[in-house]
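Aim 2 progress update. The chain analyzed this quarter is reproduced below.
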Amino acid sequence: MKPDTPEAPATGVWLGFDYGAWRIGVGLGDTRIGSARPLATLHAPQAHQTDWTGIGALIEAWQPVGCVVGWPLKDDGGTYPVADFIARFAQRLHGRFYLPVHFIDERLSSAQAEQRLSHRLGKAALRRDPGLIDAGAAAIILDTFFGQAAPSQRPALTHAKPPRISP
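Predicted structure tokens:
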């Protein structure tokens, strides 16, 4: 698929998501300052069961202008098997909350988050709460989005024309 045409993201607050089968990290960022921070980690009761109530509460509280979802690219340009679940998550996120959803290459975001957090909090804190890494990765995904001119490796899901993504 062709990347989005280069355009600046809408000004305001954005939520970033690092999707996982059991945990979804959420980051919060603002284009006006161009940076993001970890916000929360949502836990699934079963694998790939999204906590939509938790996401809805965050959207209500922060009123984002859009969302960014990490896209699992391999070095060869292919995707990891979790890509189908991520595509479905993004489609549902857009459909439920009618916000634009962009995808961004998430390679190494979790490793970067773990390195930053272990330096700041120590490895023991990360062992006690591995969800900190997920929220940190979501913040890195948002920071990457803010720093790119063409913010997506996949078409964005927008109000105008959401693309069909196979379930």
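Helices lie at 52-62, 83-97, 109-121, 123-128, 131-147. Strands lie at 13-19, 23-30, 35-43, 66-71, 101-105. These observations will guide the mutagenesis experiments scheduled for the next reporting period.
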